[in-house]
Amino acid sequence: MKSILYLWILLAGACATPFSFAQQYENESLPSHWSQMRIKEPVFGGLVHVVEAGLSHKDTIILVHGLGYSGLRDWIDVIPHLEKNYHVVALDLPGFGESDSTSLQLAPQKYAELLQWLIPQFSKDKVTLVGHSMGGAISLRFASEFPDMLDKLIMVDTAGILNRTVFVRHLTELPDRYEWLAQYQQQFKFVDSTVNKVNRFLNRISGAVLTQLDKLPDPTLVLMHNEFAQKYIYKDRPTLNAAIGLINENFSDAIHHFRIPTHIIWGKLDRVAPLRTGELLASQLFNAELHVIEGAGHVPMKDRLEEFLVQLDSALQQEPVQTNKLSLLASSVDSPTDLICTNTNNQTFSGNYKHIVIRGCQYITLNNITADSIHIEKSDVTMTNVNVVSDNVAMTVNQSFVSITNAFLEGNNSLNVNTSTVDAAGVTFVASNEAIEVIADSLVYLSVSKSIQGNNMLFLHGISQGNKFVLR
Question: Quick one: how far is CA 83 from the chain centroid?
């Protein structure tokens, strides 16, 4: 039951845009001057459909699409622009488009191996890799495994980096507000406020359901390693196949050791892969820059084509400028004050503090914060770029929901969680004792994070429940 719910939610949200894209182009012929071929490949053992354009140019760009039967046609409006100055190669990933189907497990690691074989067939030099959604995850995996084959990486609204429950929760969440209501705000403020409250209430319910499901055994992990089951369950279901492979991939090690210059392009209104993922990647990757396209969703080359092409050209021509890199040292502040928040809603704080105490506060945002300690009780808090260095417990969370992105927590104990849910992405836990202490009925979701105790470092990507870490 848990597996079915996970995947139904995932596919309903993640594949809606690619499928509509496929319907738009399914009867459209590709330009006659593009070279098309089907090549026998050794990784999945089938024929892979490849399109080649801009043959007169030396610099090669490889385009990797995301989930959806449209395959390489996701790039159909982008290739004509690129072929003017680049040699462009786009492929239908096995299972999609005009490439052969397969019952073998589809996952970023295997697709990366396919790219390792495919790229030398079309270029003897280093290439630039551009991946969208699942294709961004595949490209990240490829770049981490085969860096010598790449000159540059460009990821577009990359899916699957966060812990899978966090990813699915984002797909199910209703937005705090709708852009189409903005024009009526002045006249009907109560409508916008009511929608906000109702959606937040419904999000609490769906989040609670997912939290309870995460306490049950997960059958998808068995499917990942059972070729007999894959043969029957994955037959004619490549999107289901690839989705399972994507959400179960762990990129912690890849991100930690990554060195390829990277540009990250993101639609600000992405309802599939949250902008939070782009911010996470921009901060955690060694040499990466984030570019946000206002008004664009999960497929910016469809939603805002002209703006997307401007950002793409800039990424191709410029070296990345590191953005939002979290310093591992707390800022030096003379006599910082305490931040006390009590029974307050919808507030945003930033700056340098000694102690931060938040009690009975809902929808609180902490951005660019340094502190000696943080205590949260009976509250809902979102944190980004947080740096806490303590001689005791860096952060305590009691009867609360807390989301943390890009943080450094150092103390005798880094994080103490009691009767709460914590969603931590890109967090470094440094502790002389316990890095994460989880007590009572609590869950800590960990995405591409790590703990450091003495000379020992451990990558954390999974769920910590009652002092038990479960890799998922």
Answer: 29
- The pLDDT tens digits for 17-64 are 333 334 444 446 899 999 999 999 999 999 999 999 999 899 999 999
- Is-contact 423 166, C-beta < 8 A? yes
Integer Cα distance of 19 and 6 in angstroms:
19
From the list 294, 296, 293, 285, the residue with the least C-alpha distance to 320 is 285
Tens of pLDDT along 364-390?
Answer: 999 999 999 999 999 999 999 999 999
The bridge status of strand 443-453 relative to strand 35-40 is unpaired
Predicted local distance difference test score (pLDDT) of residue 233: 63
Place of tokens 């790039």: 75
399: left (phi over 0), alpha (psi -120 to 50) or beta: left
Tens of pLDDT along 401-451?
999 999 999 999 999 999 999 999 999 999 998 899 998 788 899 999 999
Could you tell me if 408 and 390 are in contact, meaning their C-beta atoms sit under 8 angstroms apart?
A: no
Q: Evaluate the CA torsion angle 157, 158, 161, 166 in order and state its sign.
A: positive
pLDDT band at residue 4 using 50, 70 and 90 as cut-offs: very low
Global confidence as pTM: 0.84
DSSP 362: B
Give the strand pairing for 413-418 and 337-342: unpaired
* Contacts (Cβ under 8 Å, ≥6 apart) of 53: 31, 33, 34, 35, 79, 82, 83, 87, 88
In angstroms, rounded to a whole number, what is the distance separating the alpha carbons of residues 415 and 435? 6
